[in-house]
Amino acid sequence: MSADLTADPTADLTGDEPDDHAGELIVDCRLRTGLELLAHTWDPLVIVALRGEPLRRRAVRDALGGVSDKVLTEALHRLLANGLVSRRSFAEAPPRVEYALTPLGRSLLDGPLLALGRWLDGHADEILAAQERAEAG
Questions:
Q1: Distance CA 86, CA 91 (A)
Q2: Nearest alpha-carbon partner for 54 in 87, 9, 6
Q3: Contact in structure between 50 and 105 (CB atoms under 8 Å)
Q4: Residue range 30-41: average pLDDT?
Q5: Are 4 and 18 in contact (CB under 8 A)?
Q6: In whole angstroms, what is the distance from residue 40 CA to residue 50 CA?
Q7: Distance between CA atoms of residues 49 and 123, nearest Å
Q8: Residue 4 has pLDDT above 90, yes or no
Q9: What pTM value is reported for the model?
Q10: I want to staple 16 with a disulfide (CB 3.0 to 4.6 A). Which of 20, 73, 87, 112 is the partner?
Q11: How many CA atoms lie within 13 A of 8 on its CB side?
Q12: What is the mean pLDDT of the chain?
């Protein structure tokens, strides 16, 4: 029996009936859109760094530690393009720019990222142990 490539893998998550999306490929589903928000290592971490007050770029980088300027710039551009982060420029000398979560970004932080954090609280040790076993062969 072959896999149904048009089945909606989010049907159980959204309450939609699978037939509501007949003919839609899995690669085009909303679940993929959501997963792409977490696919880049630094993006969720930038969101967490911006959980409080707006921050200047340097403060975001310092909060993260270990991120290069190039990678941080790419992450901020992706988050801006997805509407998760806002950028505010101040007409000052020297110029000042601050980044903050948008309401959409806040909902991602307070919803899925918080749930993932809670899940990891209970399962991170298991995952790390499995990774160590896999590396040991």
A1: 17
A2: 87
A3: yes
A4: 86
A5: no
A6: 16
A7: 23
A8: no
A9: 0.76
A10: 20
A11: 17
A12: 86
Indicate the burial class of 74 (C-beta count within 10 angstroms; 0-12, 13-18, 19 or more).
Answer: middle
Which residue type does 100 have? A
Beta strands in 49-115 (DSSP E): 55-56, 85-90, 96-101
Phi and psi dihedrals of 67, rounded to 5?
-95, 135
Angle at 83 between CA 107 and CA 14, to 5 degrees: 50
Structure token pair of residue 92: 């000052």
Q: Give the span between the Cα atoms of 51 and 48, in whole angstroms.
A: 5
Among candidate residues 114, 111, 113, 85, the one with its CA nearest the CA of residue 100: 85
Q: Token pair for residue 21?
A: 């999306």
